[in-house]
Amino acid sequence: MTDSTLYIVSTPIGNLGDMSPRAVETLKAVDLIAAEDTRHSSRLMQYFDIKTQMWALHDHNERSQADRILQRLEEGENIALISDAGTPLISDPGYHLVRVVRDAGYTVVPVPGACAFVAALSASGLPTDRFIFEGFLPAKTKARRERLEAVVTEPRTLVYYESPHRLTDTLIDMLEIFGPERYTVMARELTKTFETIHGDRLEALVKWVDGDANQKRGEFVLLVHGAEQEQREDLDSETRHLLSTLLEELSLKQAVSLACKITGLRRKQIYQAALDMKATDS
Ligand code: SAM
Fold first, then answer.
1. Residue 82: which CATH number?
2. Which atom of ligand 1 is nearest to the CA of 88?
3. pLDDT > 90: percent of the chain
4. Closest ligand 1 atom to the C-alpha of 10?
5. Model pTM?
6. Cβ(246) – ligand 1 distance below 6 Å
7. Alpha helices (H) along the chain
8. Domain, as residue range, for 132
C-alpha cells in the first residue's frame, strides 16, 4: 500500500458474496474508513471481521469531514471511503472529498465492485453501447416531469434510480411523457432474494406493477429504451413558423398541444422542437 492514498471502495448492493477480496483487504489495511452511515456499515465490518476505525461522512458533514480527512492524509495515513451500498459517489456522498483530495495532490484509487445501475443495465437487454445515467428524479412532480420531458427524444438508453414510495408516480409520469409504447425495464432487488428484472411497454409495465403489490417493494433501477431516431426529425419550415408564433403568445405546453392539433404531428417531435427554440431564444 502506497503512502497517503484515498481508496474508493465498492461494497455489495445486497448479496455479501459480491464483496471483493481486494475490498476486504483494503478496508482492513487502511487507517480509517469514512462511511456514509457507520451503524449501517458496522454489520458489513463484523461479517468480514474488519476492525478499522470508522468516521461518518454523509451529505450533511462532507465538507468538514473532508478537511479532517485531508489532515489525516497529511499525517501519512491511508483512508477508505465506502457508502451504504454499491459504489461511493454514484448517487451517494464523496464527490467533494475526492475533489479536494485530488486537488491536494494525493492519490485516489478505486477498488471497484457492485453498482446497481451497471448490474441492471448489463442484464436489461437494452442497448448498452450508449446510455445516460440520470440518477434519482426530483421528488416534486413538476420538476420530475420537466426532467423527463428534457430527454423525451434522447436516443440513448435512460437509466434512473427510484425509491418504492415514488415508483408509481414516476412510472405514470414516464407513461404520459414517453408514451405507452416505450419499452422499459424495471430491475428490482438486484442480487437479493426477490430479484426481479422485468421489461415491457410502459403501458403494460404500469399495469403489471399496479396489479402486484410485491413489485412495489424494495430498491429499483428503471431503464428506458432510447427514443427512436425518427422522433428527432426536424420540423419543416412552415411548422417551425407556426410553432414559434404560438410560443410567442402561449405557454410551452399550450403551444405544443395546439401545434399538435393543427399539424397532426407527434407531441414528442413538436415538444423537442419547442424546447430547442426556447433554448436558442434564451
Ligand atoms: N451507490 C449505489 C450504487 O452504486 O448503485 C447507489 C446508491 S443510491 C443512494 C440507492 C439506490 O440505488 C436505490 O434507491 C436504488 O434505486 C438503487 N439500488 C441500490 N441497490 C439496489 C438493488 N439491490 N437493486 C436495485 N436497485 C438498487
1. 3.40.1010.10
2. 1
3. 85
4. 4
5. 0.84
6. no
7. 21-29, 38-47, 62-74, 95-103, 116-124, 141-149, 164-178, 202-210, 237-249, 252-263, 267-281
8. 117-224
